[in-house]
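Work Package 3 (structural annotation) set out to generate three-dimensional models for the target panel prioritized at the project kickoff. During this period the team completed the workflow that converts sequence records into discrete structure tokens, so that structures can be stored uniformly alongside our sequence database. As a representative example, we reproduce one entry of 197 residues exactly as it appears in the project archive.
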Amino acid sequence: MAFRSITRSCGVWTSGWRTSHITIPSRLPNRALFLDRLQTECDRPRGGPTFAVLFIDLDGFKAVNDTFGHSAGDELLVTVARRLRSCVGERDLVARLGGDEFAVLQCGISVTAEARDLAASILDAFGEPNGRPGDSLGIEASIGIAVASDAFEDAGRMLRSADDAMYRAKASGCQSAFKFGSDSLLMKFESRLALVS
């Protein structure tokens, strides 16, 4: 009897944890879990391999929902999640931040070029056929990249830098583009916010 109660309690706890940390329908970790893991990386002593954040925004996702319905949008999110997982290493984390925004925490990199190569692989994966003859994923993406440095003491700051770089990639007018974040640009932006408030 006691064993059965504990099992039920653990099942409820596991279900509750999953509900609060995993997004539907992508079955990826959510923003809170991503930020928690990213903060753990930010707190590690520097030296040796480092890490990067890739902030991915799907271009044209709203049009898919509006034209083909939310079930098609959900199917696309599942496909995007699967393609992202296929691009990353075992230690990396893929998360859905919300809506059409995803993030990758790339761990154990030794040079910035590894983050660039991952971004290029992701963009290539999004362009691959979708399993049906002549059918492609049909969506472009903009990616912002922030590589760990002493300027990033907290996860939120690093994610904002990658987000800012993503918006610059989107503003470049190129389809499927990526840009690197800049510590100096982010500091200028935060200084302006401080002056306004």
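Residues 51 and 107 are 4 Å apart (CA to CA).
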